Amino acid sequence: MNAWEQRKFGSLLDETKNKTSVEDEDTLLSCAINGMYLNSELFSHFRGASNVGYLKVKKNDLILSAQNLHLGNCNVNLRFEHGIISPAYKVYELVDCNPLFMQAWVKRDSTKNFFLRASTEGASICRKNIVWEELYKQELLVPDIEEQKKIGAYFDYLDHLITLHHRKLIYVKNTSKFTQNDIIREKI
Fold it and tell me: Shortest CA distance to 68 belongs to which of 105, 119, 117?
């Protein structure tokens, strides 16, 4: 087994600050607790007056929310080749870190506590803001890149398997309801 080493979180990231300069420069994306989406998949309208100054996002970038990060609003963009996202987020290129490994790590329950330790109370007691300097200094155990690839691929496979079984479950439930309703109608 390859050795894992303590790394500062900030050493795994390189913040990008590329911003849009014209309206609708690229596809508007949203970062949600359960993944990256087209803004149109989550909302029926654009919520701001303009998207000039929005952050440019590339595939495999890490997106972190400035508020309530401890609730899990963070993702590696594994879905879209490029897009733009609200400047309320921070966007990072990963440094010597496999995107699938990082996505699995940010979705762990224990990672929420990692983010909470770098948070301070915000505008209300239920809102927590990230103290970025504190977050970057925190340490975590990280394997070498080859081990990261294996771990990332394993958890990515599990995510896909869970999604397939969830879809199958929904299909079976819907089919079962249809069949039960047919049986009831026949008896009437």
Answer: 119
